[in-house]
Design brief:
The protein is α+β, with helices and mostly antiparallel strands and 422 residues long. It is built from 15 helices and 16 strands. The protein has helices at 19-37, 50-56, 62-66, 86-95, 140-156, 172-186, 195-203, 214-221, 232-247, 293-296, 311-322, 342-354, 368-377, 388-393, 414-421; strands at residues 40-41, 47-49, 70-72, 78-81, 105-114, 126-135, 162-168, 253-254, 266-274, 283-289, 304-310, 332-337, 359-361, 382-387, 395-400, 406-410. The strands form three sheets. It has an eight-stranded mixed sheet, sandwiched between helices. A hairpin with a 5-residue loop joins strand 15 (395-400) and strand 16. The two termini are 53 Å apart. The chain binds one RNA strand of 76 nucleotides through residues 7, 10, 61-63, 66-67, 83-84, 113, 115, 117-123, 127-131, 196, 207, 212-213, 260-262, 271-272, 279-281, 283-287, 307-314, 335, 337-338, 367-369, 371-377, 383, 385, 387, 389, 397, 399, 401, 404, 406.
Length: 422
RNA sequence: GCGAGCGUAGCCAAGUGGUUAAGGCAGAGGAUUGUGGAUCCUCCAUUCGUGGGUUCGAGUCCCAUCGUUCGCCCCA
């Protein structure tokens, strides 16, 4: 008769109370900022055709090359669980002609993403991202606005020891020129690079820049800089973004080695990292500009910029800094004594709910003393005690748990009484 | 995908080849069938993630497997 116990799929996990309180706090805070800044929520499917990610993120990337949950549906469509959401949002924008709603669209989203990776702290196969996208704005103010929004959001959650890194990837032509310069420089050192970097020499040489191998780093230090290969227009854009950040008093560091993993980025790339506590998965938020993506997906040219924030990593940070939050107890705990009081307890609770007063009924059936104990442990402010004799007389006992003060209140007056007491 | 560490109850754990697997927290019952976070008593692992092996004997050693953590990789 014993059945084997099942557990969650590898790399996925359940988010239980009280951890969920942190999630809700993050979501509520984010929502407030999004409302203030005029961002609308968008919800796109978790499942998209694989082609979407191949075209947007690029086959040369690990995300598309080996980390997607892809399969064939019964209708023989090649689909994938989304590994990120910028592509999905842009697909929806193009598909529904959202540009007709106005030249600039500010959107935000929140939801699960999937990547087939080796699980680690701060890295799951199903993870959650909260993100924004500003579509249709080429102005460098959009870059700064979006960065400021992420910065403010994190600050207002109480996470203050963060580092903002920015860089510019220029336009594709800039990057192509730089790629060649970098190859010319690195090729003579080929044998001294670490194995991974040798691989990347052909496929994705820019990624060699952020290798953690000491020998490679030493070589990279003398390498030509991407910033020196930017066109005047690209440089101008980057400088304007910086000056806006200066005006907003948001501190940043320029990191020439910051290269985004996804193909669609142009111009601004940025990352917000935790200074401590997250180990190697220390990037909490990452994003940038991706002016070429809309065209890639068959839309009209649409400049765009956005970011995504890793929920699990942020939750981890908040837990490390502040611990799990204490869940608020009910204002009123409804306890009953005797046999005929059960139905009354539900009626009492319901009338309290209807009046907007949080209340909880003791469902344990334990001895009366235990019920009172539970009322205290749950940190309720009040216990409403339902006894047979009182019910017969149409009254209830109300006990203030902090002081021990106790009064009898007519059943009809209970809500009013508790309302007055606050 | 590569390298390393760890896995004893719901949680934190002691235990490093010798018979009945400490302790603490949490939980359940009772002392206390009309009033609280205290105290006391009782209960709570036929078994050490799982499966094999070595041994007279395995939580302890070996192998495999699963999970998890750390680093690489990747990225948020």
């Amino acid at each position: 008769m014993d059945s084997e116990r099942l557990s969650a799929v590898k790399g996925t996990r359940d988010i239980l109370p009280p951890e969920i309180a942190i999630w809700q706090r993050i979501e509520a805070t984010a929502r407030r900022w999004f409302d203030l800044a005029g961002y609308q929520e968008i919800r796109t499917p978790i499942l998209e055709v694989t082609e979407l990610f191949v075209r947007s993120i690029g086959t040369a990337t690990d995300v598309v090359g080996k980390e997607m949950f892809s399969f064939t549906t019964r209708g023989e469509q090649e689909v994938s669980l989304r590994p990120e959401n910028t592509a999905g949002v842009m697909r929806a924008y193009v598909q529904h002609h959202l540009h007709s709603q106005g030249d600039v669209q500010r959107l935000w989203y929140s939801g699960p993403m999937f990547r087939y990776e080796r699980p680690q702290a701060g890295r799951q196969r199903q993870f959650h991202q909260l993100g924004v996208e500003v579509l249709g704005a080429a102005d460098p103010r959009a870059d700064a606005e979006v960065i400021a929004l992420a910065w403010q959001l994190l600050q207002s959650l109480g996470v203050t020891d963060l580092r903002l890194l920015i860089n510019s990837l220029g336009i594709p032509a800039d990057r192509l020129a730089y790629r060649q310069a970098l190859l010319d420089y690195l090729t003579p050192y080929r044998e001294q690079l670490d194995a991974d970097s040798q691989e990347r020499l052909q496929r994705n040489p820019l990624r060699i820049l952020d290798s953690k191998d000491p020998a490679t780093q030493a070589i990279v230090r003398q390498a030509p800089k991407l910033l020196d290969h930017l066109s005047p227009q690209s440089l101008e854009h980057f400088q304007q973004v910086q000056s806006y950040l200066d005006k907003l008093a948001i501190p940043y560091e320029i990191d020439p080695k910051l290269v985004r993993g996804l193909d669609y980025y142009t111009h601004t790339a940025f990352e917000i990292q935790a200074v401590a506590d997250l180990g190697s998965q220390n990037t909490v938020c990452g994003g940038g500009r991706y002016d070429g993506l809309a065209v890639e997906l068959g839309g009209a040219p649409t400049p765009a910029v956005g970011w995504a924030l890793g929920m699990e990593r942020l939750v981890l940070l908040l837990q490390k800094r502040f611990g799990d939050p204490v869940l608020p107890g009910p204002r009123v705990y409804v306890v009953s004594r005797g046999e005929v009081t059960a139905a009354v307890s539900l009626q009492v609770a319901q009338s309290l709910w209807q009046a907007g007063i949080p209340a909880e009924v003791d469902l344990s059936g334990s001895a009366f003393g235990k019920q009172m104990k539970r009322a205290s442990r749950k940190q309720a402010l009040w216990a409403v005690i339902i006894g047979e004799e009182e019910v017969a007389a149409g009254v209830l006992q109300v006990k203030q748990l902090a002081t021990g003060e106790q009064v009898r209140v007519a059943m009809a007056d209970l809500v009013a009484y508790l309302g007055e007491q606050g």
